[in-house]
User: Fold this.
Amino acid sequence: MLTDTKIKNLKPRSSEYKTADGYGLTIITTPKGVKKWRFRYRFNHKPSMISLGIWPAVSLADARALRLDYQAVLDRGVNPSTYKKQKTIELRSDSTFRSMFDRWYARHMGEWTERTAKKMLAAFEKHIFPYIGDRQVSSITPLDMLEVFRAMDDKGIHEVLKKTKGWASRVFCDCVVSGLIDFDPTRDLPSDAFKRHKTRHYSTVTSPEDIGELLSTLSSYKEKGTIQVAEALSLAPYLLLRPGELCKTEWTEVDFSNRVIRIEGGRMKITKSHLVPMSESVLLRFQEIRELNLSSKYVFPSPSKSNSPINTETLRAAIRRLGISKEQFTTHGFRGMASTRLHELGFRTDLIEIQLSHTDRNQVRRAYNHAEYLEERKEMMQQWSDYLDMLKEQG
Assistant:
């Protein structure tokens, strides 16, 4: 069977050749290096074949999914070639970019949090649909997309541009798989077509001395502000959650018996469930907070409204109130601080990335489930907690 690596390593020869994946699915490599998917089958005892698109616009996973669809059609006694032609005709009757986006969005919307989905729609409504929304996808060229994205680039919204370009590419690839277009018009846009910009990094501290001083400073907030915010600030370095995830922690998520915090995917940025092992000192802290009866729902409730959590702006304001500037440290800085120090302390990258609930930037690696390496992460989080306690005492 084929793998992504095998496909990538298929080299052109003097004549085109086939490489089989199995069950009739093959990829043909041409002398020019083009790699074309084909599904070979027999209908009414006669051999036949249909095209499934070109790699990498149609990935290995896409090609296998299409093969399964056409095999199901064949099992019903319908010629896949006839089925494909009819399906293409139906799609082309309303194949504007907006309609294709809506179809793709409806199929994949469960992959994103509500917040991400809203951001996506807002970006397309503002920057994409006014220009190509009513255009037939088959008429959209790379130059059209370059003009659309350069208009965004000129506005300085580099992160929005990057994300929107990626989403648009997925819509076009979906159209390739459907047979509406032959290639993704965003695929070959050169990286130097847009302005270079500095990567944004959240301000943080990473040296043991600075971390110790920071922890000591944060602990002093109990004398200046509310207990809810003080506890959230003191626990933030230990839990490694994003600020929004930390603020909305609920008591139903805190499993005292198993010493973990269980957060369902709907609250996480990457829509995957997430487990946060609690060290002995963190567990004790949560028990003490529970005894305060601040709220029956939230661990860190709003001081003025116990049925609502504190918000990220409250945490940010508290840090500034302690005399820490945005150039020195931000609420996201706890995660960067932990990533740097945990690596330097010798912990494996995959453990750290899973604990930080990062999306997997290397698509070759398999997706993880929320309980993966849990025992090792428990040990890592205990050592991290002990390390922070030591630095705090020295700070």
